[in-house]
Amino acid sequence: MSSNAPIAVNRLSVSYRAVEALRDISLVIRPGRLVGIFGPNGAGKSTLLKAMLGLIPNTSGSVLYHNKPLMQQLDKVAYVPQRSQIDWSYPATVWDVVMMGRVQKTDWFRRFSTTSRRVAAAALERVGMEKYRDRPIGQLSGGQQQRVFLARALAQEPEIFCFDEPLAGIDQKTQEVIFEIFHELVAAGKLVLVVNHDLGETIAHFDDLILLNQSLVAYGPRRQVLTKENLYRAYGGRVMFAAGEAA
Ligand code: ADP
Ligand code: MG
């Protein structure tokens, strides 16, 4: 079962040496809503996910879940990094990748239980990739790779899902499968955070938007966030799309 606890991001700032990537971000992110993190290239979207999970150090602030640092509870989190950050030459099959999602639930002797195999097989089937089980991951298309990583996340059975640009460079069918699964997870009470920089029509899938440009521009229900003023503050003159939907 999922808990109903929110993630509380409190005054989070992150710098890479001289570059200040995130400034003073405060957010309360609740489960049961599909939450999109939007902003232009370099806005700090990936940095926000990584800093929330403690994968990079923050300069100040905290990220709490059940009143404890989220980074101490990564067994409750599935994180799928941006595709460009994954080493695709790694000699793993589709099945290997999905079973990696079960490592934390594996016993002392590193034996995968029958349950783990069943959960992994169901996850692979859910994303429509069961026929590719023995295929090296590097030989798949972008959309297929994204599905496999989604299956790995599902196999983990976490409370919190974090996806970094899962929709970048994928086919239409994969996009539909991915959103269908996101909506199911949200309906099941999971906390689902999705980075997306493209303000295209897929934005309509999101319940809440976090609009970022180094600092927090706006956060809330999609329609409230999508104002011309907010979009201008986040994207500057680069906004063409979605302005039609903006108030
Ligand atoms: P986004 O995901 O929104 O495109 P990032 O979080 O990747 O943005 O980057 C935010 C800012 O931090 C950018 O200015 C980027 O150049 C900088 N940055 C990201 N990663 C590093 C790094 N490892 N070292 C130095 N600067 C970085
Ligand atoms: Mg990024």
Fold and architecture overview:
With 247 residues, the protein is an alpha/beta fold. The chain has one domain (7-246): 3-Layer(aba) Sandwich (Rossmann fold). The protein contains 7 helices and 10 strands. The protein has helices at residues 45-52, 94-100, 114-126, 142-155, 172-187, 222-225, 228-235; strands at residues 7-16, 19-29, 34-38, 60-65, 68-69, 77-80, 160-164, 191-195, 208-213, 215-221. The strands form 2 sheets. It has a 6-stranded mixed β-sheet, with helices on both faces. A 4-stranded antiparallel β-sheet has the order 2-1-4-5, with helices on one face. The chain starts with 6 loop residues before the first strand and ends in a 12-residue tail after the last helix. 40% of the residues are buried. The mean pLDDT is 91. Adenosine-5'-diphosphate (ADP) binds next to strand 2 and helix 1.
List keywords for this structure.
alpha/beta, globular, Rossmann fold, four-stranded antiparallel sheet, binds adenosine-5'-diphosphate, binds magnesium ion, single chain, 7 helices, six-stranded mixed sheet, 247 residues
Largest sheet: 6 strands, mixed
User: Could you estimate the helical fraction of the residues in percent?
Assistant: 25-40%
**Rg from alpha-carbon coordinates:** 18 Å
- What is the H-and-E element order? EEEHEEEHHHEHEEEHH
Widest sheet: strand ordering: 6-7-8-3-9-10
The name of the CATH topology is Rossmann fold
Work out the number of β strands: 10
Number of helices: 7
Uncertain parts: none
CATH C-level class: Alpha Beta
Percent in strands:
15-25%
